[in-house]
Design a protein that fits this description.
By secondary structure, this protein is mostly helical. The chain has 6 helices and no strands. The protein has one domain.
């Protein structure tokens, strides 16, 4: 959780990025995907108030970045921030799992995640 918290906080502090920090956020979260997968898959953490508080703080910062990304026009702003936040987390999870399984090259993952969030396809890779 500490790794994820630091990663998101560093992106939150970025200013002046034309896409609101989306590309950096995606590139930073994908390597943290295995740690997030571990946390999300382990039900014993659901009742840990300290981790829950930490995660709530991370979600708030992620929501602020997504709001900034909406304002930049990098992804459609007609969707709720929470939708794009959880879509991003789901895509990070899928990317991390498929990197682990050998289906996806780690260098291709950010492009696919970004293309999906932006709604521009990005299906230039193998099937």
């Amino acid at each position: 959780m500490d790794v994820c918290e630091r990663t998101v906080h560093e992106v939150m502090l970025l200013e002046g990025e034309r896409d609101g920090g989306l590309e950096r956020l995606v590139a930073a979260l994908i390597p943290v995907g295995p740690q997030l997968s571990f946390l999300w898959r382990n039900p014993s953490f659901d009742h840990d108030d300290e981790l829950g508080g930490q995660w709530n703080a991370v979600e708030e910062e992620l929501a602020a970045v997504i709001h900034r990304v909406h304002q930049s026009g990098a992804i459609p702003s007609g969707r709720p921030v929470w939708w794009d936040l959880f879509s991003l987390l789901a895509l990070v999870y899928v990317a991390a799992e498929n990197i682990y399984l050998g289906r996806l090259a780690s260098l291709d993952a950010p492009r696919l995640v970004l293309a999906t969030l932006r709604g521009d396809g990005g299906s230039h890779g193998r099937h």
